[in-house]
Amino acid sequence: MMNRLRPKDASVSPRFAGIPTFMRLPIVTDPYKLDVALMGVPFDGGTTYRDGARFGPREIRVQSALIRNYNPVLKISPFEKLRIADYGDIDVNPLSIENTFQKIQQEIETIVEADALPFSIGGDHSISLPILRALTKKHGYRQLGMIHFDSHIDTWDEYFGMKLSHGTPFRRAIEEKLLNPNKIIQIGIRGQLYNATDFDFNKKHGVTMITIEDVFEHGVSFVDDKIRNLQGDKLYLSFDIDALDPAFAPGTGTPQVGGLTSFQALQLIRALQGLEFVGFDLVEVSPPYDSKGITSLLAANLIFEFLCIIAH
Amino acid sequence: MMNRLRPKDASVSPRFAGIPTFMRLPIVTDPYKLDVALMGVPFDGGTTYRDGARFGPREIRVQSALIRNYNPVLKISPFEKLRIADYGDIDVNPLSIENTFQKIQQEIETIVEADALPFSIGGDHSISLPILRALTKKHGYRQLGMIHFDSHIDTWDEYFGMKLSHGTPFRRAIEEKLLNPNKIIQIGIRGQLYNATDFDFNKKHGVTMITIEDVFEHGVSFVDDKIRNLQGDKLYLSFDIDALDPAFAPGTGTPQVGGLTSFQALQLIRALQGLEFVGFDLVEVSPPYDSKGITSLLAANLIFEFLCIIAH
Amino acid sequence: MMNRLRPKDASVSPRFAGIPTFMRLPIVTDPYKLDVALMGVPFDGGTTYRDGARFGPREIRVQSALIRNYNPVLKISPFEKLRIADYGDIDVNPLSIENTFQKIQQEIETIVEADALPFSIGGDHSISLPILRALTKKHGYRQLGMIHFDSHIDTWDEYFGMKLSHGTPFRRAIEEKLLNPNKIIQIGIRGQLYNATDFDFNKKHGVTMITIEDVFEHGVSFVDDKIRNLQGDKLYLSFDIDALDPAFAPGTGTPQVGGLTSFQALQLIRALQGLEFVGFDLVEVSPPYDSKGITSLLAANLIFEFLCIIAH
Amino acid sequence: MMNRLRPKDASVSPRFAGIPTFMRLPIVTDPYKLDVALMGVPFDGGTTYRDGARFGPREIRVQSALIRNYNPVLKISPFEKLRIADYGDIDVNPLSIENTFQKIQQEIETIVEADALPFSIGGDHSISLPILRALTKKHGYRQLGMIHFDSHIDTWDEYFGMKLSHGTPFRRAIEEKLLNPNKIIQIGIRGQLYNATDFDFNKKHGVTMITIEDVFEHGVSFVDDKIRNLQGDKLYLSFDIDALDPAFAPGTGTPQVGGLTSFQALQLIRALQGLEFVGFDLVEVSPPYDSKGITSLLAANLIFEFLCIIAH
Amino acid sequence: MMNRLRPKDASVSPRFAGIPTFMRLPIVTDPYKLDVALMGVPFDGGTTYRDGARFGPREIRVQSALIRNYNPVLKISPFEKLRIADYGDIDVNPLSIENTFQKIQQEIETIVEADALPFSIGGDHSISLPILRALTKKHGYRQLGMIHFDSHIDTWDEYFGMKLSHGTPFRRAIEEKLLNPNKIIQIGIRGQLYNATDFDFNKKHGVTMITIEDVFEHGVSFVDDKIRNLQGDKLYLSFDIDALDPAFAPGTGTPQVGGLTSFQALQLIRALQGLEFVGFDLVEVSPPYDSKGITSLLAANLIFEFLCIIAH
Amino acid sequence: MMNRLRPKDASVSPRFAGIPTFMRLPIVTDPYKLDVALMGVPFDGGTTYRDGARFGPREIRVQSALIRNYNPVLKISPFEKLRIADYGDIDVNPLSIENTFQKIQQEIETIVEADALPFSIGGDHSISLPILRALTKKHGYRQLGMIHFDSHIDTWDEYFGMKLSHGTPFRRAIEEKLLNPNKIIQIGIRGQLYNATDFDFNKKHGVTMITIEDVFEHGVSFVDDKIRNLQGDKLYLSFDIDALDPAFAPGTGTPQVGGLTSFQALQLIRALQGLEFVGFDLVEVSPPYDSKGITSLLAANLIFEFLCIIAH
After folding, report:
1. What's the DSSP call for residue C309?
2. Per the CB < 8 Å rule, is B17 touching E90?
3. Which of D43, D51, D59, D157 is the best substitution to test chain E (most E C-beta atoms within 10 A)?
4. In the complex, which subunits touch F with 3 or more CB pairs below 8 angstroms?
5. Which of D200, D257, D263, D286 is the best mutation test for B, with the most CBs of B within 10 A?
6. Which of B194, B213, B247 is closest, CB to CB, to C294?
């Protein structure tokens, strides 16, 4: 069985050939046959500035054709250890955020019911909320911890009078007791705020923020120390591509200058080895704003690194 | 007063200079000082495929810097005859189509209350519905006629179970008695349908469809004959930029090949002289998919032609 | 069975969602379950100027998401009449034209053996030769006729001392008795030649060339008259996207100005109703040179029209 | 000698190889060895909106790699009849329009002194003035006639208080008695004017304007009739690429919608056979605004057609 | 009063809506109502290679829509402390550098007369000269110091025999006694020179050059030490966007590889706290060469950081 | 003589003017008049994913217009010390890798026979093999050492059953005894492998691999130490542009995230001073995938640095 879930052999079937699936993996829609379900969640109805993330899954599929099997740094091939496939996309409803959230939650519940790990590829950051709802339910309604890469805190209260958007998912998740704020670490935070009080919610609830200044000035080991506090917890991993600098990831909806380099991102992900994750998302890749696909290519590489972490 | 509402003089202030307003006109937010309010309606939450039309008003403003004053074909300068200005944008709610429709309707009511003519620059095609609601209310709830340029009929019933979207505004408008279907002419219709029955609603209600084949094979005079039937009626004008071929207007959400040329579009608009319009929209310009701004530039030119029709 | 081979319903599964297959059709790799096999042939090793056509199938898949079911001009839905699916790509060998030709011929033989009609989406124009070899073998080595849309004649003898390239397939095919030159009609021919004698081969063998001047000056009916001479013959259809003007189809390797409009292309294809085709190709879409996908979108629409011709 | 002035043989030296010269011709800087000097004039200091035409010669060289030798419509190979080469660029002064004009005039004088025909590739339209000064001097200060393709009349008086710009060259040329206004035909005129009086200068001086409406409605034969009036006159040919529609030629500084198609442009140029031209320019190609080089490719093709007219 | 000079509230008016002003600030053209006048100076007639910087102000306005109010690193909101607005553009003369310089000097004099601080957004680097003329006049003709971020020294003598260009402003300023060379620090200098002697002028006059090697090898603290020498002086700040590496700022006229990262630029600007600036410019953003607006977005962020420095 | 081989003076002839040669150098096709022959090798028939590198030489010529004469870091002007010119391109055969390799080998032999140093600008990485064949022959069939910048090892055995491709040149070169594997240092290696065994060949033969982790974590001095082991050997230098991160060099066929910055690349090249190189290539620049020419510009700068190393 597992033998069949391998990327197409690029020395036989050229990388430019074939129907584009994530990493040229087979399509498997039965979650019981999977350890990890790579799945698109093409919803961008939660964006407040530039949209287009609905095309994230499609373009990441295309650019992921370059991914090979073996990680020589972590010395692992995730496809050897785990049954990983392209699970397809969730059929979101671009006209209704509420209906979309129902569909996402339902699909994630189906996946986790089968004991597969859901890896959701967005779409905008609003999708994390229904995913967390499903995951928490699966895990006995116990609050999860979270590693969250982002330039933004995403714990704002509302936009345009609405509670659901790509700037609010983790406030909702904390309010709904899906996440334990003391077990949340946000990495890469930077950029202007609306007000001096924007961090108050995070501070009040004990969310750990590692700013970009922390990363550049204190290095990966500083982050590593913080991360170790989550050892033993069940964790969610949410990666907003705008954690990277726009030079490395221009294709996103609310880019913020002064961000991570691609090498730093790889280092930080590799530092997550040994933690226990119950779900992943990589969000906010907006292909219409990308430059020659470099953002989607980077996203595909980051997803591969996460798969290596899972396989470890 | 009127003297002040003129585009900046491009032989004194270069076209590339200054804050970009529609056609380099002054900003006027008091509708009582206006005959025509050029206004952005940057909502794209009704799109079913590619979004991005929320940036239509911004980019059409930018590209409209090339528009000059006088139309040598129609022999008119609209800015001499009418008080026209940049009225700004309606602050839509990207997270709620219902709330957005309320805001649009309210603002259009304000404008028509002041006896100014609203010229709405989208945004996606869903915005026509709240505009029509406001206009009809103003005109004593009498059904309006409509000239509708588009590749699509936009009288489908629903998408994803939802009644409001960019593919359904005119079905809703007919159902709500905002439009008189016998007084609707759709021009440029083409492309595949979902089903053979897609035209049934139109046919049943007596909507006139002029296909692209009609235009290319029978010419402008054929269209002109049809249009003459609307003489004397109060009309709405709705122009979806995808009426044009993607070679001329690539920057749109659901492009359809085999469409109008820019010259045909100009001819068809000029053929509208003598009709009585109570409102206009130009929709579905999606700048992220544009090529070097040619779609927005074309849109700006079409808007200018419409202003000449109004001024006539 | 047939019910399952339908494009995904876009009012349930959004067009931007899911793994991109041709026209959102199912993937079927058993030719016995198909009437028409839509298949990518991503080879561009025969190009003499700009390459990149190896990405043609991938990008046409992506852009074909906009295709709907029913053709209101021809009044037909090909998916109702025929079992059509995405057959995947042929695994060409980018390092060897000879090996690639073997693979193509072999795969086409497999398809025609199952009585399915092969519709090959290139890739460069060199691929037509091995396809014709396979088709002729299937049809008892009887020479086929051909309708060939192109700006170039593609009957040159050699480039760089080589006999196989995208400029020579039909000379080889005539020499190998795969095509009956008296039954070949080339449409859209234009552009400079290398020498005044370039047409000599065509003239000597009785190939009919309809130049772009013929099309623009004498119209579709002129072409129609010529085409009628092929009634009753078994025909191959080869469509080089550079038959279109670069304004409509910039994404191609050897673009030639002064070409067909998209509307003319649709008209000319629709004029083919009633002819009998045993195979199709659409070639020379080179996505790296495309502008916002308009060439691939056009290609997808032309493929749909051809499917309607087949279904008729 | 003449044998050496041929484009590189593309069946030996691939089109993508080698230092890019106009049409892959040899570089010849001695005008006495030439019949036609293809020369870049990369000045854009006369533009009033978008600049970038300084890169016109460079990019037209690049795209002209696709041009072949023989024109099958006019049945001529200009390279067989005439000694044509890449003469290089005039070293303009981007910081001074006056100094640039001196340099241009001087270089053109050198060329015409050698009895070579100068074909200037801009650059913006301001360059026509110093060229005309040089040509008129050569031709005994006799006023020249002119065929002028453009969307704009370019006989405005001044911009920003300056007499020299890309909008004024032909007013200056008429005032300086370089051009005989009764022998000027402008083709493709369209778009808004600054004022209703903008055409007054043209009308007063007897300049013939053929609007785009004339071309579309009355066809090439209408233009042809007008052109015949210039038979026997010494003429200058000035071609502003914005005569074409932006769909065909987006890469230009002041694009105007509703313009010529590429096929119309070819037809109109071919209609010039039999007239006597003493100089040519093709101007206003602005590569930063081009889309995938289609404007420069078109320009290269138009230049080839002009060379055929000269060779005739 | 000050309350009104705030960026539009993005939780009420979406960032994509409205007429694009700098940072969505109000338009104020009376300098007496301002502490800082953000103003476009769209002149690129001083460029020697790629032009297009005339569109810098327009595009920076567009991209600045993402800027929020509060700087969490410097712990300040400039809009709370200072009256800052979009002052519009100076109507430069693209056809005359001399006339443009007069207009710039005059407008800056008007602003400084009102005790507002001029923040000029170019445009090319030549504009610094007339700004310095106006500033020096205001400050009693006392020479100013300067912090100058750039990859180039911009103290060359002349180009094409001309004294005014984007490569010469600071040589002129030193010659005219506008700047005190001993109080000039240039940061980010790198790239090839014309000759080994290019630095001689700087060395002779005591200009401090901090090369990119200094920055990368010795860090921000090294720069900080140098900067402290300017404590107490009246300073001008000139920021050429090409100080950044082309990966971060591709949209500029004379890009130089091996430059600053965006994070370094932010750090270096933040190190300027405590110095006294009397004027600012940010120049050489050339949107036609930008990639998806990242250069203009970066420029907007740098401008925001400078505003924080001013507000401190 | 040497005086004539200087880049055109950019203060007289603007950088945007003239026929684009490498660094605006003269064209010299007689190798006996040269110390270094800058030459294009526009072959991309060895690529396994994205092609387009055939346009590398053309675009690097275009972007190299910005290169100036003097390197202020290395304090040298290569054009003063060496006779360097644009030697033109090798006329490769895009339809045959074998024929291309013959042509390359032959031309390189001609150059080295004249004691000129060949600097080959690709094209894809397969071209290194015939170059090495020619160089080794010249140097008495003695094996060369090599410094190899790349993200990939390029010592794979075969693709699609073929021995010649851009992933195999150095395995072939080691097998053919052209290179001494103990004298090979690869810098920048990173990214996934096909299998855990991919490095086995390198390890078995004693190739030194410096991974990107080595560079980022241990710095240039670490690399420098390794390089010193090659002091005194005759070396080849092969630079694959994908050694750089896609943010700095997007325009390449198989980009790999997490790569060198431009500043690191400059530092690493400058560390090569004192080594003895007998040939150079810079490969895998693929302009269709570049963003605004930044990859080609970077390549031109790297070539300049290498020229400085040679001149030292």
Report:
1. H
2. yes
3. D51
4. A, C, D, E
5. D257
6. B247
CA distances from E144 to E79, E130, E135, E172 (A): 27, 14, 9, 14
Residue tagged 């190889």 (tokens):
D17
Residues A90 and F296: their CA atoms lie apart, in Å, by: 41
Question: Across the strands, what pairs with A117?
Answer: A36
Nearest CA among E227, E220, E230, E234 for reference residue E178: E234
CA proximity to B167, closest of B306, B248, B47, B26 = B47
User: Shortest CB distance from C12 goes to which of A20, A88, A91?
Assistant: A91
| CB contact F245 to A (< 8 Å) | yes
Mean residue pLDDT of chain D comes to 96
Alpha-carbon gap, residue A110 to A88, rounded angstroms: 14
| D263 in reach of chain B (CB within 8 A) | no
Percent of chain B clearing pLDDT 90 (strictly above): 97
The pLDDT value recorded for residue E312 is 84
Length of chain C: 312
Least confident of A184-193, B4-13, B274-283: B4-13
Chain E neighbors of A216, CB-CB under 8 A: 263
- Kindly determine whether residue C261 and residue B255, on different chains, have CB atoms separated by under 8 Å: no
Task: Work out the mean pLDDT of chain E and round it to a whole number.
Answer: 96
Question: Rounded distance, CA D92 to CA D60, Å?
Answer: 18
Q: Is residue C56 part of a domain?
A: yes
Radius of gyration of chain D (CA): 18
- Summarised one tens digit per residue, pLDDT across range D37-77 is 999 999 999 999 999 999 999 999 999 999 999 999 999 99
B301/D contact by beta carbon, under 8 A = yes
With an 8 Å Cβ cutoff, is D21 touching chain F? yes
With 0.95 as the threshold, say if the pTM is over it: yes
The per-residue b/e assignment along F100-132, b for 16 or more CB within 10 angstroms, e otherwise, is bbebbbebbbebbeeebbbbbbbbbbbbbbbbb
Nearest to F192 among A15, A262, A304 (CB): A304
Whether E contacts C, i.e. 3 or more CB pairs less than 8 A apart, is: no
Strand partners, E117: E36
Under an 8 A CB cutoff, do E88 and B40 touch?
A: no
D127 in Cβ contact with D172 (< 8 Å): no
Chain F residues in contact with D58 (beta carbon < 8 A): 16, 20, 62
Q: What is the largest CA-CA distance in chain A?
A: 57
Per 3-state DSSP, chain C is made up of helix, strand and coil in percentages (nearest 5) of 40, 20, 40
What letter does residue D143 receive in the DSSP assignment?
P
- Which distant-in-sequence residues (6+ apart) come within 8 Å of A163 by Cβ? A157, A172
What is the pLDDT at residue C229?
92
| Neighbour order of strands in the sheet with F208-211 | F84-89, F36-41, F117-122, F276-283, F234-240, F144-149, F179-189, F208-211
pLDDT at F1 over 90: no
The number of folded domains in chain C is 1
Residue B87 is part of a domain; what is its CATH number? 3.40.800.10
Chain F residues inside the 8 Å CB shell of C52: 50-52, 288
For chain D, what is the largest distance between any 2 Cα atoms, rounded to a whole number of angstroms?
57
Q: Which chains touch D (3 or more CB pairs under 8 A)?
A: B, C, E, F
Domain limits at E152? Answer: 2-311
Supply φ then ψ for residue F278, to 5 degrees: -110, -5
Q: Above 90 in pLDDT, residue F139?
A: no
* Ranges of H-type helices in chain C: 56-63, 78-81, 97-113, 128-138, 169-175, 200-205, 212-228, 262-270, 294-311
Residues 92-151 of C with CB under 8 A from B: none
